[in-house]
Amino acid sequence: MRFIFKSIVVLLLTLLSSCGASKIDQQVILNHPEPLRISKSKLAATAPKILVFTKTAGYRHEAIEKGVETLKELGLQHNFEITQTEDSLQFNTENLKKYQLVLFLSTTGDVLGAKEEEAFKAYIHNGGSFMGVHAASDTEYDWPWYGKLVGAYFVSHPEQQEARINVEDGSHPSTAHLNDTWTHFDEWYNFKNINPDLHVLLMLDEASYLGGINGDNHPIAWYHIFDGGRAFYTGLGHTEASYDEPDFRKHLLGAIEWCLKR
């Protein structure tokens, strides 16, 4: 009997010990903090903001809408936020403070009034960034400051065709993915008033197509530090098809990353 009693006591103690451990384990599991999760809204709040300006007072490129769509896709993939406008009144001091980059996408003609020009100039003076795509160089001919900012003015172009581009600097984020030469189909701008202080990234080889008038010095993409801010320009982007081309999309993305200083 004594042996049986001892056996029952040992069994009860074992069961109690197991139950206690199980409860402790459950408590540890239940009280363990959940992994830190950042909401999509919080991520959006931290994303750099880019103002894409598409106003045209002259020729309007059919690829503008495709370009905006592409920039929005790139923004979703690489954590920046696109706001598109054709309202020049958005160029005021308070509104421009929201944006880390102002991007002129194939704007044409006189698109800003005197007050808007002053606000944009102040934005650059205070360290803002500018990026111009294609017809951004066909814009604001009566505003010399803008001409120096964008880097050159459009003067003419031949018919659209394939051309060879020489990569002058492959270390920049907008060109690092390219080989030494890049063959691309586009509308090739000829330029005037080329700013001598530009850092040229891509140079057109005029021997590879018909209609170039700039000779051996025919830049087609460049950047520079100007008047307190950053400025980047690419002459590519006339056709809708170019916005589906992986090399051109990477070219745009790298330029944006450089303008955003990241």
Task: Give an overview in words.
By secondary structure, this protein is α/β, with parallel strands linked by helices. The protein has a single domain, classed as Class I glutamine amidotransferase (GATase) domain (Rossmann fold, 3-Layer(aba) Sandwich), CATH 3.40.50. The protein is 34% helix and 23% strand. It is built from 7 helices and 11 strands. The chain has a 9-stranded mixed beta sheet, with helices on both faces. α5 (114-125) links the parallel β3 and β4. The model is unreliable at 1-38 (pLDDT under 50).
How would you concisely characterize the structure shown here?
The chain is of the alpha/beta class.
Taking pLDDT < 50 over at least 5 consecutive residues as the criterion, the unreliable ranges are 1-38
Structural class: alpha/beta
The name of the CATH topology is Rossmann fold
Shape: globular
- The helix fraction, in percent, is 25-40%
Domain module count: 1
- Count of helices? 7
Under the CATH scheme, which class?
Alpha Beta
CATH architecture: 3-Layer(aba) Sandwich
Mean pLDDT: 88
Per DSSP E runs of 2 or more residues, the count of β-strands stands at 11
Read across the widest sheet, the strand sequence of neighbours is 2-1-3-4-11-10-9-6-7
Please give the structural blueprint.
Blueprint: H1 2-31, H2 40-46, E1 49-53, H3 64-78, E2 81-85, H4 93-96, E3 101-105, H5 114-125, E4 129-133, H6 144-150, E5 153-156, E6 161-167, E7 181-186, E8 190-192, E9 199-205, E10 219-226, E11 229-234, H7 246-259
Parallel strand pairs: 1-2, 1-3, 3-4, 4-11
Antiparallel strand pairs: 5-8, 6-7, 6-9, 9-10, 10-11
